Amino acid sequence: MPRRSTSSSTGRSTGNSTASNAPRNRTPQAVRVRRRSFGDFVKAFFAFVALLVLVVGVPGALAVLIGWPLPHGAPGLDWLQREITVDTFLRILTVIVWLAWAQFTACVLVEVKAALSGVGVPGRVPGAGPSQLLARQLVAALLLVGATAASLTPGLSNLGHSLEGNQKPTVAAAQATPGIFAQQQEQAASTAAALAEQASHAQADAGHSAKQHGDTKYYRIQPPEGRHHDSLWEIAQRHLGDGRRYKEIYELNKDRIQPDGSRLSEASLIRPGWIMEMPGDAHGGELVEMPDAHVSPGVQQQIHDYAKTGDHAQGGGSQAQGGGHADNQVSVPQQRPASDGGQQHAGDQHTAPAASSSNSSTFGLPQALIGAPLLAAGLLGALGRRRRQALWQSALGAVGGRRGMEPPMPTGDAADAQDALLIGADPDGVRLLDRSLRGLAAQLAGESRALPTVYAAWLSNGDLHLQLAQPAGKPPAPWQLGQDQTFWMLARTDAERYDDVDTAAPYPGLVSLGTMDDSRLLLNLEAVPGIVSLSGREADRAAVFASVAAELATNGWSDRMTITLVGFGEDLTPLAPNRLRHLDGIDDLIETMEAETRQRRGALGAAGHDSVLTGRTGPAQHTRWAPHLVLLAAQPSAEDAVRLAELASDASRLGIGYLVGTETGDLPGAAWEMEITGQGKLLAPLLGLELDAQMLPLATQRAVVELFVEADPEREPQGPTPTPPFLVDISEQGRPAVYARLVGPYEIIGLDTPDGDRSALLHEALALLLLHREGVHPRVLSSALWPRGVTEDVRDALLERLAAWLGADPDGSPRLSADATGRLVLAKSVVSDLDVLRSLYHEATQGKGVDSRAVRGRLLTDALVLVRGPLLADRPEGRYRWLTHEIIDAQLPLLVADIGLALSAFHLEKNRAEKAIEALNAALNSAPADERLWNELLRATHATGDETRLQALAADLVNRSGARGLPPRTEALLDELLPSWRSGVAAVG
What we know:
The chain is an alpha/beta fold. Mean pLDDT is 76; it is low at 1-34, 147-192, 201-214, 312-326, 337-362 and 398-403. Residues 832-978 form the Bacterial transcriptional activator domain.
């Protein structure tokens, strides 16, 4: 596929490039001053008259003609019984007019302040859409004829950055809107265009003057301090007075070569040491001008070189791809035009910082995880399984005693890594990839066709392209031939039709290497005819190796595999102890692989298969056909390299893949040679590839491993039992302002139901925040609500509506705010029944209930009453899909079971067996699969002395267990309580 080129220096564009995306030419040019016409003065005059009438004339007329409309004293009860007269009606209308005047006057003041200050965009007056639009048009028309309008209103100069982007949509909207509104929109469009033109001329004049005087200001990106990282938002906040002006800095520096040779391509991706040219009104001590004697000669030269790239900044040119299809070559599939930009997953979008009400930003989170949706989905899924396993083992007391229902709360870098996983993960993409590959294998097996050898897979705009080693005929429907006979293509809409099938994963060795344009490459390591070598700096190689190992260990399109790590990754084993294996040196590796190679050759010969692919389909599929992937980061000696090359010569047929690191780039037996550069590019010249590499840097790697170590079910408890993240005041004085019922049907008490279609979205956002009292990163929230991506303005609008809906406490503090890390948090006055449930159980078992039996019984009873069913029982179809990433669905049944067990023990202490049975049955309604509840119910029923009742319960348990039979512990308990239960069950059956 020909790569899309960016705009050239001549102003032409190809592919999907637009003029608005082209780098701006900042060479000083003559300024064409737009002269004000007679029509401009006429418009300004009428605007002045209209403002004078509306702002001054209306209140004056009301005061003279009507007077004060409200009563002069406190009205009595008889006032409500008076007859409504014409005078009363007029006074009511007068109050409404006064309110409308006050709102319009506020709009005028806001627009005038924004125009004169030039900082950011005008604020929005609540509920004043049409009024504020009218005020904006009148103020703009009035300022248009000012002699220094452009210079006094630098905020308007922002309109001139992208003239097409600001003018054309308004004109289009005016043309599409009938009637009087179309005329108003058209007038607003022409006014905005005139302002934009004049402001851009003034800005060009100011820029030209600045260039002449040599006082252009620069800022050097600072290295991180602790968890704080520099960001364009914060730079704009410090030096321009408004973080929302970060886009101006981005536009000034986009695509310009930085001192390290890389370019600024995304506003959220900046590196320490980069140089940023700043707008002319920037201020602050960290800025430098050129020339400046206080700047070191090295930095001075870097700034001088950087300044020279500003005239014709442009994106890197495209590199021609390999045209032929040799047996060992990978090429890019031709992409179809994206049918819907909204289908792109949030993990593949690199959005600029959010200008949200919480002043949050996208910075500080590991971009390596946010930009790797398949890797993030695998890690997130594996982490969830690990935490659920730890919960169950804790509940059963299998390891280290009870550890409570709350897993350790990640902090620091681990918390950032968890947020990045939630943002970047694309579980739908993993599911579609897995179903598509297994569905293809099942179809080929049904047609008695062999699986084709696949070198690589490309994910492009949701479509899946498989690159075959050689033509394999026509693919089964709905697969289609791609650009030639060596490509099979499956559209996303067709992939969604596949269901889960019971067949072995056909290509478990696929692993993401990076992206090219809109395509993501997955290389099939086990199919490469020989060794894949990777050269480059040691740290960069290690980051690539770690990414490959982590994805192979946790991906969702594999069944079983062995991943052997040599020379790195000893600390990666917590990610998947059953898959990852670490060897100390190359000698151990060669000895191990020689034995396995012999074993696999013999097994293939005995089974009559020519390769592992034929052994993965049909009745012959067996676990011995699982791949073994070797990742060797250490540089092998010449002798060891030859031995590895001999082992790898037949590796693809045996399902064994080798990825070997090298310092020189020259490795004997290497079929494919790749190089990782210091700028994060993965190069394979012979394959015609230049990718943005998928990497897992050391700091991010350690943070991810920390998450898995903390969730390890075999790990001994550290410190005291964790308390719930949010404890509420359960006394009568602790009545909350807003109370949400999540355990069962979703209900909210204390708030009005929002109108319109946004109600469901606001409810979902509030539920996510209630389940995470520690705080939610704004990008985590947007990724949960819009898993396929969303723009910043839509997200920010939701946060504004959510904050307005929740309102403020009596002391004026908002109920939705941001903490020091930028995460969204709810006030303590907003409480859910889950918070109360956790608080009641905690108080009963670790608080006042420990020393008082009566208090413990009351608290446990109150807690069990709150349980009305499963979490969010009536949630709409298609929403709350983020719950699949949570462990609350495992925590809640265990918590309910713990409450039922504690209340049962409370009653059995006083021989109240019936009360104990009642509590256990109530808990079983929400936790029907908890074996502990059934065992305790057997004991409580036995305590009644009614053997017939116990026999009926045993029969019910046997029927519920089905073909699996009773759990061993339950069966042993029945043998103790009712030795004749087997014959009794048979008689009942």
